TrEMBL record:
This is histidine kinase. The chain crosses the membrane at residues 452-470. It comes from the Bacteria. The lineage of its organism: Bacteria, Pseudomonadati, Bacteroidota, Flavobacteriia, Flavobacteriales. InterPro entries: HATPase_C_sf, HATPase_dom, Sensor_HK_TwoCompSys, TPR-like_helical_dom_sf. One of its GO terms (molecular function) is protein histidine kinase activity. It catalyses: ATP + protein L-histidine = ADP + protein N-phospho-L-histidine. The keyword Transmembrane helix applies. SUPFAM superfamilies: ATPase domain of HSP90 chaperone/DNA topoisomerase II/histidine kinase, TPR-like. Its EC number is 2.7.13.3. It is an enzyme of class 2 (transferase).
Length: 684
């Protein structure tokens, strides 16, 4: 039995080497023919055969493939251009770009060859070649993080490829468009693209890309802190991948890394460590060297930052430092800066960590990555504080707070947009389901009675259409009410959270700062006492902005008058006020919404109007309270502003008005100022 197994093994090895030697002999013969052939057309054919043969030996002699593939494809492209066969040159350029990006990791070389062929784009007759060429340029810009240009290239590619039958290329372009939107933080367009491409992947039965689609949707859920939905999406992706005959271990590694990131956010560090070690196991089995490097980087950061075990972190860094190509690449460079900064901080070497942190910050500024900028500013604050450079520490703390507020607003807007998108998707799916149901009913009719049923069918169709339109109208009205209810609940929740944070700032943080000030004064450190005074004032101002406690103490009338006077004092704008006594007209919740209505109206004037003067009139009428706010600013086209999805300010005013059951009118013309009129019923 043992002898039989040894015999089989010897035969297999012999056949492998025989096959390998045959392939190498074939390459050698083709190289000789290419070098000794003078005919250009024959040489083009031989170069094509040679590049295909070299591609076939990728698995058996990777080094030879990596060294020689680009060399002969470039010769083919140059010769095709000489023969004015630009379509052939474009086709091979797309394949060569893929090689440059995935194998030799030289995006700059890929960009040069793509730009060269695109100069002759007018001569490309086959649409699929032109579309794939723009897609290749998009992939290059995506890899070097020039994301805005990547979006433009992918849109061009999609527009061209959608007119061809190349569904696979079209779907990949749409998928990467969504991925690029995601990296830019444009989650709405990312979700829409992923939903659009999912149907194409199902049509193609491409479970790998279906899984990657789920992974990216999971990432968006994680960004919105919807951890249960994120975990559910990853579970579906994992199921798709493990059902394959040869599972994509790099993708499974990525899923485990995403599990780790969510678990860290929830401070479940033991589970997070388990997920990362599982990710490393998958990446070792996979063929993606890049995936393995990223997993080791995450492990290094984890043991430095969350376990405070720099000696274990160092073990994973050594592997990364040995690979100069990865370390100096666009993604690898940021990863290397991150792991080195965390390692130095874990060792208590904060001064040595600062240069790495500064380089990271510059990279994230170019990428417009607000979340990563926030994390870096926090680390810089801690590092400068540890080395007792308090002025630099305070500067980074101030930037951290500004970025935190900005990120909060972005996440809040993205959450609202996400639920709106979810609603639109459900509405579309219900419409498709209703249409399919109608078709199935019509197709189920007896063929023998077809002629008899023509006129009856018309009547039934009209009846079904009427029922469908009626039910659709009821459905739209119900969903509109749900959407309004959700947005109003969101505003109420925001107010409750703001009140709680405001109270904590005033009662806890404020008192702590006063204690610090008293201790500083005892030490006769007047300079630090002045800084602490400034911080106390800022905390009080933030507390008052988050929740107007003056409203509960002095009433709505005085609070509105005080707010207007404060704006008049602190901004370069003259404000006149005529405010009737409206105390005790409304309950506390409605008073807060009225105050916010006025506050947000003046915020819009200060941000957008360029007005020199403004006026507020509050009239206590028999049936309602009328609030009129005017400015002499630049004005705007009301119809266009109402249609613009980005005008969150107007949307918020409209939602608060609905909550108060108030009428809300906008009167504005360009260069003629703006007037906002709110009529709030007393007994709604």
């Amino acid at each position: 039995m043992l002898k039989g197994k040894i015999y089989i093994c010897i035969v297999a090895v012999t056949l492998h080497f025989y096959s390998f030697s045959q392939e190498n002999e074939g390459v050698t013969r083709l190289v000789d023919k290419v070098e000794n052939t003078s005919g250009e057309i024959e040489k083009l054919y031989l170069l094509d055969s040679l590049s295909k043969t070299i591609a076939l030996i990728k698995s058996t002699d990777f080094d030879f493939y990596k060294k020689n593939y680009a060399k002969y494809v470039l010769q083919y492209i140059d010769l095709a251009q000489t023969l004015d066969s630009i379509d052939l040159a474009a086709f091979q350029t797309s394949k060569l770009t893929d090689h440059y990006l995935k194998v030799v990791r030289r995006p700059d070389s890929a960009r040069i060859i793509v730009n060269t062929i695109l100069k002759d784009s007018g001569k490309i007759k086959k649409k699929s070649n032109l579309g794939n060429l723009y897609a290749s340029q998009g992939f290059v810009n995506f890899q070097i993080a020039d994301l805005e240009k990547a979006i433009i290239d992918f849109r061009k590619a999609e527009k061209i490829l959608s007119k061809t039958k190349d569904t696979l290329s079209t779907s990949k372009v749409i998928y990467y468009t969504g991925h690029t939107h995601q990296r830019l933080g444009d989650l709405t367009n990312a979700i829409l693209r992923y939903q659009q491409v999912n149907d194409l992947f199902v049509q193609l039965r491409d479970t790998t890309y279906m899984a990657f689609n789920k992974i990216n949707i999971s990432y968006i859920f994680s960004q919105l802190s919807l951890f249960d939905e994120a975990m559910r999406a990853r579970k579906e992706a994992r199921s798709l991948l493990t059902s394959q005959k040869n599972p994509n271990n790099s993708a499974l590694s990525q899923i485990s890394v995403m599990d780790y990131r969510d678990l860290v956010k929830q401070k479940k560090y033991d589970d997070a460590e388990t997920s990362l070690l599982k990710a490393l196991e998958f990446s070792k089995k996979g063929s993606s060297y890049k995936s393995d490097m990223f997993t080791r980087a995450y492990l290094s950061v984890f043991y430095s930052k969350y376990k405070n075990q720099p000696e274990i972190a160092r073990k994973y860094i050594d592997t990364i430092e040995q690979d100069a190509d990865f370390r100096n690449g666009p993604d690898g460079q940021i990863v290397y800066l991150d792991i080195m900064a965390e390692l130095e901080m874990a060792r208590g070497r904060y001064k040595e960590a600062i240069p790495f942190l500064k380089q990271k910050r510059e990279a994230f500024l170019k990428m417009n990555d607000v979340q990563s900028q926030l994390d870096v500013e926090e680390c810089l604050y801690k590092s400068y504080k540890e080395i007792n450079k308090l002025s630099e520490a305070n500067a980074h703390l101030e930037k951290y707070m500004l970025l935190k507020d900005s990120l909060y607003n972005i996440k809040r807007s993205n959450s609202v947009i996400y639920y709106q998108t979810l609603y639109e998707t459900e509405k579309r799916e219900n419409k498709i389901a209703a249409q399919k149901a109608s078709i199935e009913i019509l197709e189920a009719k007896d063929e023998a009675k077809k002629n008899l049923m023509i006129f009856g069918g018309i009547g039934l169709s009209l009846l079904f259409l009427s029922i469908y339109l009626y039910r659709n109208r009821i459905f739209l009205m119900r969903n509109k009410k749900l959407q309004q209810s959700f947005l109003q609940e969101l505003l109420q929740t925001q107010e409750r959270v703001s009140k709680r944070i405001s109270k904590d700032l005033h009662d806890s943080v404020g008192q702590s700062l006063l204690l610090i000030k008293n201790r500083v004064l005892k030490n006769k450190d007047d300079k630090t006492a002045t800084v602490v005074d400034g911080v106390i004032d800022e905390v009080r101002e933030i507390s008052r902005t988050l929740h107007p406690f003056k409203l509960e103490e002095l009433g709505l009338t005085v609070t509105l008058q005080s707010s207007v006077e404060k704006i008049d004092e602190n901004y370069d704008i003259f404000i006149s006020a005529e405010i009737d006594d409206i105390d005790k007209v409304f309950d506390q919740e409605r008073e807060i919404n009225i105050y916010r209505l006025v506050q947000e109206s003046f915020n819009n004037i200060l941000k957008h109007s360029n007005a020199r003067s403004a006026e507020i009139i509050v009239r206590n009428k028999d049936q309602d309270i009328e609030i009129v706010i005017k400015d002499n600013g630049k004005g705007f086209d009301v119809s266009k502003e109402k249609m613009a999805a980005s005008k969150i300010g107007l949307k918020t005013l409209a939602e608060r008005s609905k909550f108060l059951k108030a009428s809300f009118n906008i009167l504005s013309e360009i260069d003629k100022g703006t007037t906002l009129i709110f009529n709030i019923p007393k007994h709604a």
